[in-house]
Amino acid sequence: MLTRNESLWKRISKNFYIWLVFFFLYLPIAVVFIYSFNTSKMNILFEGFTTRWYGSMLHNQVLMEAFQNSLVVCFVSTLVSTVIGTLGAVAIHRYKFPGKGFLENMLYIPVVIPEVVLGISLLSVYTAASIPLSLNTVIYAHITFCIPFVLITVKARLAGLDGALEEAAMDLGARPFTAFYRVTLPLLTPGIAAGALLSITLSLDDVIVSFFTSGPDSQTLPLQIFAMVRTGVTPEVNALCTLIMLVTILLIIGNTIRQVRHLKKGK
Amino acid sequence: MLKKINIFKWFTILPVYLWMLLFILIPNLYIFAMSFMKRGIYGGVEWGFSIKNYIGIFHGMYMSIFFQSMLLAFETTVICLLIAYPFTMFIMNKSKIFQTIAIATVTIPFMISSLVRLFAWITLLRTNGVINTLLLHLHLIHQPLSILYTNGAVILGMVYMLLPFMILPIYTSMEKIDGGLIEAAKDLGARDLNVISNILIPLTIPGIFAGSILVFIPSLGYFFVSDMLGGSQTILIGSLIRDEFLTARNWPFGAALSIFLIILTLVVLRIYSKLGGKMDDLGV
Amino acid sequence: MNSVITLEKVNKVYGNHHVVHNLSLRVNEGEFLTLLGPSGCGKTTTLRMIAGFEVPTDGAIYLNDQRVNEVPPYKRKVNTVFQNYELFPHLTVAANVAFGLKMKRVKRSEIKDRVAKMLSLVQLEGYGDRKPSQLSGGQKQRVAIARSLINQPKVLLLDEPLSALDLKLRKQMQFELKRLQRKLDFTFIYVTHDQEEAMTMSDRVAVMHNGNIEQIGHPRDIYERPQTRFVSDFIGESNFFSGEFDKNVDDQWLIRSKNGFFTVSANPAFETDKKFYASVRPENILLSEAPVDGFSISGTVIDNVFIGGFTRTIVRLEDNTEIKKTTYSKSGILPVDQKVYIHWSKEDAVIVDTEPLEK
Fold it and tell me: Is the Cβ pair B90, A15 closer than 8 Å?
């Protein structure tokens, strides 16, 4: 949609708008970054520059423990939801089975229903079954809302693949699982990667569901930060989040480069 | 199609099916059942059928909270749309590479702790925060603006959190439009505004709908935004439910509120489907 | 000759759609057999049942005297060359070709050897490291063939493998496929809707229509002795003449039709109290300015079209039926508007259908 006859004024104002939106989105992130160097621990006004929080945060046991919890939850739930979600995508894409429509509806619930409901429903069931709240209960909850997102992402990619390729593999002697493993799965990798990335993001940042399904010993990082909001978010938190942000940005840049390269190849 | 050996087929179906049954169906059925029960003395659940909870919902106070929450969600959705649509339109004029980078740029904030970003807004918006300090310094205002702890701040926070969810579906929708259509319209004499209203908007309705759903529904439940940025008057449906569960310990009532919220969501989704929306578009 | 594949009264039904109808077939070892027919005749479905991708609703399929109805494709010693090649895009040419061997857990050194041999057999030496996306249509086709042949299948199934190629390349590939089949002495079952292709390459052709085989035999037989109206019309071109038996004349029958009398060879296989349909190929039609003994069909020349190496003459009969004649020489073309009489040599008319007489 490249229109070359646009007046200069129009083009300037359009660009200005685009950058304004970017500015809006990144302003708080800049604040997070800058305030991670704040000498004032209260972190309300910026007083001076220091990098000591990047070191001291490692000694903040409460913070580090919460961070570790988040990582564990994220890792396990991404792993499990990616496997179950990928297999589920194959199931729905390919097969007819009793209750398929019902399953598809169930999968949409975590996506569209407000997270509060997901949280309290799980909390209620955990309580009724006398399951104590722990990191495990958080993990189960995270897997539950990650699966649909992985499944939808992989299913979209699956739709673009040629179904006859697996037939060709079987014709050449591959059993169904081998055909899937050697032909479909390699071709599905971009979709699975995208789904996993989505899952990591959702899990790492989850507040509401974790809020209801975690116990006092299993606070995740967002919950810890949430608790700190009343007293003030210290620069240590800013430092930790800045680091997480950098890693996330690197991952996304990596993925974007892959996408851009793919586009360039297509030309 | 090929008839495959059952083992593999069920290997793919069972994990997801069983997990959903266990963690979605059963819990939701349970809270549905619980919504008809009574509150136990010590805050637990007492068995016994009663629709008192549902009657209680229609009490003035709760209804006004529901309406306020929906109004807030609606305003958030509209503002997101007004910001996102031109943004997407403008980046469509640029190269594919720019578009890909732009979308990635928009998506990155979503991956950084939302709480910390929201707290940054507190830093920016408070009476002695960055924005007020700057405006005072530039003599644009004489007294600090109290933006924080108002409904406005909550809307700002929610727009900030949910903007990517509006941009992505609209972008997906716009991407699918054949550029040749725009040129054909212009060839026939359509001015920019005509092109937008007669071609662009009708063809991107699926994206607009999907984005609206993805913004509206979460806005009803994002209690941490209203907790952090809102005043005591700003109560979302989500905050209500949280309070009933953790403060008032009236779980059956909380369950009834949740069911009510679910029904609300289903009604909105039904309207979405009826107007032509597809469920798959919601899996951004 | 051994029958390497036998189909016995095979039926395939999808919902209300009866795609393959009581089909029986014996495929001889080492032969090049083609299933020929228009789209929808059931030829691809039949092939897929032999491969194992579809299960017959009814009937039996035997591979080397073993019943294989429900045996999955990966257990059959049969390989398929697909219409769209179905090369694995993420694997190199060599890895594609080696796939079947890898499934059988053949030793890596042996695989390397056999792949190299196979690639040179299909004239793709040195292409081993390329990816399918880097190949042309013809090259992809050869990789698909190599990938199947390397497994030394009892039978190779080919599902319209050349339909995506341009004419010249197609002709070239037809020749190569035939050469390969002869050299390796495998059994090929080929599916196509292109009759020229079928006639050129096959040892036997099975003409299919509405889910069944109407006629099977050597290409020449099919062409010169079609047994049904469909076959005579589908293969090459036909002029149809119909009428009732009038009388015997030596070893010929005189037939009375709406347009006049004509003669066919007496055929003891048929009862004479029927309405007969005879087919005469355009190249066998003879035109004369005066009537010939045993024939009284006349018409007017309405067009002479020169097409490359031959002339197509169209004659319109009294009842507006159009008869096509093909002449390969430049002489003897009768002018337009000329009244002509139609006749032929007695062995050139084939009875392809009969109907009971209307009483």
Answer: yes
Q: If you average pLDDT over residues B1-12, what whole number do you get?
A: 71
Which residues is B39 bridged to in the sheet? B45
A241/A250 Cα distance (integer angstroms): 14
At A180-189, the pLDDT tens digits run: 999 999 999 8
C-alpha–C-alpha distance, residues B31 and B251, integer Å: 9
Range of the domain at A154: 61-266
A 176-205 residues with CB < 8 A to B = 176-177, 180, 201, 204-205
**Chain C interface includes A185 (CB < 8 A):** no
Is the distance from CB of C300 to CB of C310 less than 8 angstroms?
no
Those residues whose C-beta lies under 8 Å from the C-beta of residue B252, and which sit 6 or more positions away, are B34, B35, B36, B37, B38, B39, B45, B53
Rounded (10°) angle between helices A135-159 and A100-112: 120
For residue A150, which phi and psi values (nearest 5 degrees)?
-60, -45
A31 within a domain of the structure (yes/no): no
Q: What is the CATH number of the domain that holds A147?
A: 1.10.3720.10
Instruction: Give the gap in angstroms from C-alpha B4 to the nearest C-alpha of chain A.
Output: 7
Report the pLDDT value the prediction gives residue C330, as an integer from 0 to 100.
77
ipTM of the complex: 0.85
pLDDT value of position A263: 66
Check pLDDT > 90 for residue B82.
Answer: yes
Cβ-based contacts of B5 with chain C (< 8 Å): 72
Structural domain count of chain B: 1
Tell me the CATH number for domain C237-356: 2.40.50.140
How far is it, in rounded angstroms, from Cα A49 to Cα B212? 42
Span A133-162, average pLDDT: 92
Average pLDDT, chain B: 84
What is the count of structural domains for chain A? 1
Give A 139-168 residues with CB within 8 A of chain B. 140-141, 143-144, 147-149, 151-153, 156, 163, 166-167
| C23, HSE (Cβ side, Cα atoms, 13 Å) | 37
Q: CATH topology for C3-233?
A: Rossmann fold (3.40.50)
- Contact list in C for residue A171 (CB cut-off 8 A) is 51-53, 73-74, 78-80, 148
Mean pLDDT score of chain C, rounded to an integer? 90
Residues constituting chain A:
267
For chain A, the first-to-last Cα distance in angstroms comes to: 17
- Contact of C14 with chain B, judged by CB distance below 8 Å, is answered with no
Rounded to a whole number, what is the distance in angstroms from the first to the last CA of chain B? 30
Which chain C positions have a beta carbon within 8 Å of B2's beta carbon? 53-54, 73
**C3 forms bridges with which residues in the sheet?**
C28
Task: Please list every residue in chain A whose beta carbon sits closer than 8 Å to the beta carbon of residue C103.
Answer: 172-174, 178
User: Which chains have 3+ CB pairs within 8 A of A?
Assistant: B, C
Interval B111-167: pLDDT, tens: 777 888 888 888 888 877 778 888 888 887 777 778 888 888 999 999 999 999 999
Residue A19 lies in a domain: no
Interchain pair B2, C53: CB under 8 A: yes
The shortest CB-CB distance from C74 to any of A162, A164, A173 is to: A173
Start-to-end Cα distance in chain C: 48
Decide if A9 touches B, using CB distance below 8 A: no
Establish if A179 belongs to a structural domain: yes
A61-80 residues touching B, CB cutoff 8 A: none
Report the CATH number at residue B243: 1.10.3720.10
Mean pLDDT, range C307-316, rounded to an integer: 88
The tens digit of pLDDT for each residue in C314-347 reads 999 988 888 999 888 877 788 889 899 999 998 8
Q: Which residues of A touch B110 (CB under 8 A)?
A: 201, 205
pTM of the model: 0.80
Cross-chain residue pair B2–C55, CB shorter than 8 Å: no
